[in-house]
C-alpha cells in the first residue's frame, strides 16, 4: 500500500469508484481507494439501478445525461460489461400538475439537446403493450432510459481507475483520519497509513461513522426500501425486444423489465428508519426481512396500470438500506470548517448520477471549482443547525414518503419545522405570517388575513398571489416593513480590515466613514461566487451584508485570504436582526422614531449611520433591495421585538405594514436586481450579469487572475428583463418562476433565472440569460412547458433612472 497519495477515497461503492475513475481521467494517477469490505457492499449491490436523464434542475439533468452516455463508453474503454439496457422510459401524467411538470421538462430537453419528447397513446401502446393508458393525460418518452448492472458499473469504474494508475484496497477499513499541522491527513488502516492532502468520504451507509473519525457530523439517516421481481411473465417471454420502463410517479411506484419478468419498487408512506444510532460495522451484503404489506397500496396501483403484475408470481424481494439527506440531494463538497476533507454522501439515484457526481468531485479537487453551479448539492447549503436529529428524521421521512411528489415552484414543506426562530416569530405568526425556511430560519413569505392560513401549491398562481400583490402596492404607494434578518451579516474590524476586504472582494472598499459599496466576490474560474454590500462604519470597522443561505459556502472564500495581525472577521448573523423599511413614505415614517436627520442631504443613498430608532440602537444603511427609497436597519437580536413593534406602530400613521419575501422577489425583479444563486453564480461572468463595472482590475483581489482571463471576452449570454404577454399569462394563470427555457424563432436562446408578476408595473416579468436576443426582440418563454410570447425590455420597468431610490 502507498504511504502517500494525492487523494484517498473512502468507500468502494459506485460513487467512490466513480470518483476514483474521474480523478484519474482528469490527470491524478496517484490516488487510492480503501473499502472496508468488498466493492459494492452497502447500498450499491442491491440497487434497482434505473437510469434516467431528466430532472427539474437543468444542471442535474446535464450530469445525468453525461452519466447515461458514459456507461457505453466505459464498457468499450475497460472491457468490463456495465449491463446497460436502454429500451427507453415512458413518463405518465395522471394530473394537470404532472402534465405541467413533464411539458416543462420536455421544453428543457429541447433547449439542451436532450432526447425527451411527447408521444401519443398509439405509439406508447406499441412500445409497451402491457400498460393500460386509461386516464393518462400526457405521455413522454425518453429513448435512452433504462437500467444497468450495479456490480458491472462499479467494477468498470474500478478497472478504468486501475488502468490509469489508481490503487484499490478491499477489506481495508479506515480506523482513523488524523489531520496534521500542515492541513494534510493521515488515513489509518490495518494495512498501513496513507498521508494525503485530500480525504474523500464516499462511504455510503457508513458516511456518518467515517465523518465522525474527523469530528464531523453529517445530517444523514438510513431507511429501508423495497422492490420485488416477478416470475417469468408469458407475454414478456414471447417478445423479441425489451420493454421500456414506466415512470408512473402519480401512482408512487416504478416499474421496469427484469429478465423475463418485471421489477416493481415503491416509496411508501408507511416508511421505516434504520440504524438511527449508527450503521453496524459488520453489515455488508445484507438485507432486511420482507415486508410487502407496507407497499401493498403502491402495488395495487401498479396492477391497475399493468394488469399482468397481478397474475405474476414473486421471484424475489429486496428490502435493503438507503441513506438520505434532509432534502434527498447529495451532500457534496469540501467541509468549510476543515481543510482537505471532501464529502460525497447521501446519494439516492446513484446510477443516474454516478458519473456526473464523480466528474464534479474531480473537477472541484483538481481545478478548484466545478464547471456547473451545483449549490443544490453543496454541503454548505446546510449549516451545523441541520444536524439536529429530530429535524433530520422528520425531513427524511417526508422526502422518502413523497419521493415521487412534485416539487412545485415556491413550495415550502413543513416537516421538521420550526427549527430556528427569532424573537418576533410568534408576533409575526399572530399577524398571519406564512413562513418559509431559509438556511434553517423561519421567515415570513407573505401575510394572510388571519393566522393559520398555509400555502397552496401548484405551477399556476396560488392563494398567496393576491395578498402578495397588496403588499407590493402598499410598499410602492406608501411604505412596507420587510424582515431581512436572514441576510448574512459580518463585521471586519482592526487595522488591516480595509486591506483584507480589498484582497477578498473585487470592488474597492469605501474610503470614507459612512460610505457603502456593492461588490462581487469572484469564483475560481472568474464567475460570480457572491455579491455583498460593504459599509465602512469607522476607520477600522466594516460591515458586510450578503446572502444568508450562502454563509457557509462563502466561508471557503473568506478563509482563503489570511487575516492581517490584529484584524478580525466574524459572523453577526445570529446576533443581529434587521428590517428593511422602504417606500415613498418610509422617510416620514422613520423620522417619527428618531432625532437623526434622514433628509436626502443628511442621509444620502449608499450611506450609513449609527442611529437610535424607537429607543433601539441601529446601524442604518441607506439601501433597499426593493429599488425604492428605503433603509436597512440592523439591531441586536434582543432588541428585535422592540424595534419591530415601534416600526409597525409608526407605520400605521402612513398606511404601512409588514411585507414578506415573496413581495420582495417581485419588487426586485421590477427593478432588475439580481439575486445570488439565481442571477449571480459561479457559472456567470461579471460582464454577463452587468457587474463588470464593480470589478476594479487595477487592484489585487481573490481569484483576479481567473477574472482577467474572461473579463475581456465577449459575453456568452446576457442578463435581460423579459415582459411576458398579458394574454398568454392570463390564459395559463401562471408566471415564470425560474428555469423556463427561452426560444427565439424556434431556436433555444436561454432560460429564465427568476420570474414573478410585477404588481406595481402591471407586468408579468422574468429575469434570464439569453444569447442572440437584443432589447425589443420578441421571444417565447416556456411557462408550464408551453410558449408564452415575451419581449426583451430595454430597461427595468420600475424607476429605471433610480429617482425613487435616491430621493
Automatic annotation (TrEMBL):
Sequence ranges assigned to domain FAD dependent oxidoreductase central in this UniProt record: 367-421
Residue span, Aminomethyltransferase C-terminal domain: 719-799
PANTHER family, alphabetized: AMINOMETHYLTRANSFERASE, AMINOMETHYLTRANSFERASE, MITOCHONDRIAL
Gene Ontology molecular function, alphabetical: oxidoreductase activity
Family according to the record: Belongs to the GcvT family.
Family annotation (Pfam families): DAO, FAO_M, GCV_T, GCV_T_C
Keywords for this protein: Oxidoreductase
Domain FAD dependent oxidoreductase, chain residue ranges per copy: 7-364
InterPro entries with a match to the protein in the record: FAD-dep_OxRdtase (IPR006076), FAD/NAD-bd_sf (IPR036188), FAO_M (IPR032503), GcvT/YgfZ/DmdA (IPR028896), GcvT/YgfZ_C (IPR029043), GcvT_C (IPR013977), GCVT_N (IPR006222), TrmE/GcvT-like (IPR027266)
Source superkingdom: Bacteria
Start and end residues of each GCVT N-terminal domain: 425-699
UniProt cross-references to PROSITE patterns, sorted A to Z: PROKAR_LIPOPROTEIN
Protein name per its UniProtKB record: Dimethylglycine dehydrogenase
Amino acid at each position: 500500500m502507498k504511504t502517500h497519495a494525492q487523494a484517498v477515497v473512502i468507500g468502494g461503492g459506485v460513487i467512490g469508484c466513480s470518483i476514483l475513475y474521474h480523478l484519474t481521467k482528469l490527470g491524478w494517477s496517484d490516488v487510492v481507494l480503501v473499502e472496508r469490505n468488498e466493492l459494492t457492499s452497502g447500498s450499491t449491490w442491491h440497487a434497482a439501478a434505473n437510469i434516467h436523464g431528466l430532472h427539474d434542475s437543468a444542471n442535474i439533468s446535464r450530469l445525468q445525461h453525461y452519466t447515461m452516455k458514459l456507461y457505453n463508453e466505459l464498457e468499450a474503454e475497460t472491457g468490463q460489461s456495465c449491463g446497460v439496457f436502454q429500451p427507453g422510459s415512458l413518463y405518465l401524467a395522471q394530473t394537470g400538475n404532472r402534465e405541467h411538470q413533464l411539458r416543462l421538462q420536455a421544453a428543457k430537453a429541447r433547449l439542451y439537446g436532450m432526447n425527451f419528447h411527447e408521444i401519443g397513446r398509439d405509439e406508447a401502446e406499441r412500445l409497451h403493450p402491457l400498460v393500460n393508458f386509461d386516464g393518462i393525460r400526457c405521455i413522454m418518452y425518453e429513448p435512452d432510459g433504462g437500467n444497468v448492472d450495479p456490480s458491472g458499473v462499479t467494477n468498470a469504474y474500478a478497472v478504468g481507475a486501475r488502468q490509469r494508475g489508481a490503487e484499490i484496497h478491499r477489506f481495508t477499513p479506515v480506523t482513523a483520519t488524523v489531520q496534521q499541522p500542515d492541513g494534510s491527513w493521515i488515513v489509518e488502516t490495518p494495512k498501513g497509513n496513507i498521508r494525503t492532502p485530500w480525504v474523500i468520504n464516499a462511504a455510503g451507509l457508513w458516511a456518518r461513522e467515517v465523518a465522525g473519525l474527523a469530528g464531523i457530523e453529517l445530517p444523514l439517516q438510513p431507511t429501508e426500501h423495497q422492490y420485488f421481481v416477478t416470475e417469468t411473465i408469458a407475454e414478456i417471454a414471447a417478445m423479441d425486444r425489451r420493454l421500456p420502463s414506466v415512470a408512473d410517479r402519480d401512482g408512487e411506484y416504478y416499474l421496469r423489465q427484469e429478465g423475463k419478468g418485471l421489477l416493481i419498487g415503491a416509496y411508501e408512506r408507511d416508511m421505516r428508519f434504520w440504524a438511527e444510532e449508527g450503521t453496524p460495522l459488520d453489515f455488508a451484503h445484507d438485507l432486511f426481512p420482507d415486508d410487502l404489506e407496507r407497499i401493498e397500496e403502491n402495488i395495487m396501483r401498479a396492477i391497475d396500470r399493468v394488469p399482468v403484475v397481478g397474475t405474476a408470481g414473486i421471484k424475489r424481494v429486496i428490502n435493503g438500506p438507503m441513506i438520505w439527506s434532509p432534502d434527498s440531494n447529495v451532500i457534496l463538497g469540501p467541509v468549510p470548517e476543515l481543510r482537505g476533507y471532501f464529502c460525497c454522501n447521501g446519494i439516492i439515484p446513484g446510477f443516474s448520477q454516478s458519473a456526473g457526481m464523480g466528474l464534479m468531485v474531480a473537477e472541484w479537487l483538481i481545478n478548484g471549482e466545478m464547471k456547473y453551479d451545483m449549490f443544490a448539492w453543496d454541503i454548505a447549503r446546510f449549516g451545523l443547525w441541520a444536524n439536529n436529529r429530530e429535524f433530520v428524521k422528520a425531513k427524511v421521512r417526508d422526502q422518502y414518503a413523497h419521493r415521487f411528489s412534485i416539487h412545485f415552484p415556491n413550495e415550502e414543506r413543513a416537516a421538521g419545522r420550526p427549527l430556528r426562530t427569532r424573537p418576533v416569530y410568534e408576533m409575526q405568526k399572530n399577524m398571519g405570517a406564512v413562513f418559509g425556511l431559509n438556511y434553517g430560519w423561519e421567515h415570513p413569505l407573505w401575510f394572510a388575513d388571519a393566522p393559520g392560513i398555509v400555502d397552496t401549491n401548484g405551477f399556476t398562481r396560488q392563494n398567496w398571489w393576491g395578498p402578495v400583490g397588496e403588499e407590493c402596492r402598499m410598499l410602492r404607494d406608501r411604505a412596507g416593513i420587510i424582515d431581512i434578518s436572514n441576510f448574512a451579516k459580518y463585521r471586519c474590524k482592526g487595522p488591516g480590515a480595509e486591506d483584507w476586504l480589498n484582497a477578498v472582494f473585487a470592488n474597492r472598499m469605501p474610503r470614507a466613514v459612512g460610505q457603502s459599496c456593492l461588490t462581487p466576490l469572484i469564483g475560481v474560474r472568474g464567475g460570480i461566487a457572491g455579491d455583498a454590500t460593504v459599509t465602512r462604519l469607522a476607520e477600522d470597522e466594516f460591515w458586510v451584508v450578503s446572502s444568508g443561505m450562502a454563509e457557509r459556502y462563502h466561508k471557503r472564500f473568506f478563509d482563503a485570504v489570511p487575516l492581517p495581525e490584529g484584524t478580525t472577521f466574524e459572523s453577526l448573523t445570529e446576533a443581529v436582526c434587521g428590517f428593511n423599511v422602504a417606500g415613498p413614505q418610509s422617510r416620514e415614517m422613520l423620522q417619527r422614531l428618531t432625532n437623526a436627520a434622514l433628509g436626502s442631504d443628511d442621509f444620502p443613498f449608499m450611506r450609513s449611520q449609527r442611529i437610535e430608532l424607537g429607543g433601539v440602537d441601529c446601524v442604518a444603511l441607506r439601501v433597499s433591495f426593493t429599488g425604492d427609497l428605503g433603509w436597512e436597519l440592523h439591531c441586536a437580536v434582543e432588541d428585535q421585538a422592540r424595534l419591530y413593534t415601534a416600526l409597525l406602530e409608526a407605520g400605521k400613521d402612513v398606511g404601512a405594514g409588514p411585507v414578506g419575501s415573496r413581495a420582495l422577489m417581485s419588487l426586485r425583479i421590477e427593478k432588475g436586481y439580481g439575486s445570488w444563486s439565481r442571477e449571480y453564480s459561479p457559472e456567470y461572468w461579471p460582464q454577463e450579469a452587468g457587474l463588470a463595472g464593480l470589478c476594479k482590475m487595477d487592484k489585487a483581489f481573490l481569484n483576479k487572475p481567473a477574472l482577467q482571463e474572461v473579463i475581456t471576452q465577449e459575453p456568452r449570454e446576457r442578463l435581460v428583463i423579459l415582459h411576458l404577454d398579458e394574454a398568454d399569462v392570463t390564459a395559463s394563470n401562471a408566471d415564470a418562476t425560474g428555469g423556463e427555457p427561452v426560444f427565439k424563432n424556434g431556436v433555444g436562446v436561454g432560460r429564465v433565472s427568476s420570474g414573478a408578476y410585477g404588481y406595481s408595473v402591471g407586468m408579468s416579468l422574468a429575469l434570464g440569460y439569453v444569447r442572440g436576443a437584443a432589447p425589443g426582440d420578441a421571444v417565447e418563454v416556456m411557462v408550464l412547458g408551453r410558449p408564452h410570447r415575451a419581449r426583451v425590455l430595454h430597461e427595468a420597468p420600475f424607476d429605471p433612472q433610480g429617482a425613487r431610490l435616491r430621493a
